[in-house]
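PROTEIN ENTRY
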Amino acid sequence: MENAQELGSPQPITLRPEDLDDLLTRAAERGAERCLAHLGLENGHAARDIRELRDLLEAWREARHTAWQTIIKVATTGLLAVILVGAAIKLKLMGGTQ
């Protein structure tokens, strides 16, 4: 029977912690570069583009929040106007029929 080395089985690799850390760091950097390239952000403007996207998203959120506030204010004002008109009619302040 042949041993594992004769069959060409891979042997375990021993690395110093510093070498392993360096290897992992380079692999992470390459992965990040590939990810940015996949997103179309591979040029040197990626950070600026991402900041602009975040600013745009924040502006959208603020606009949406303001729109909801405006809708609520308009609905509340309309409801109060209807109540005032109803009260005025009920109290015959608007010259309603007798």
Summary: The chain has a mean pLDDT of 87. Helices lie at 17-38, 46-90. DSSP finds two helices and no strands in the chain. Residues 67 and 73 are 10 Å apart (CA to CA).
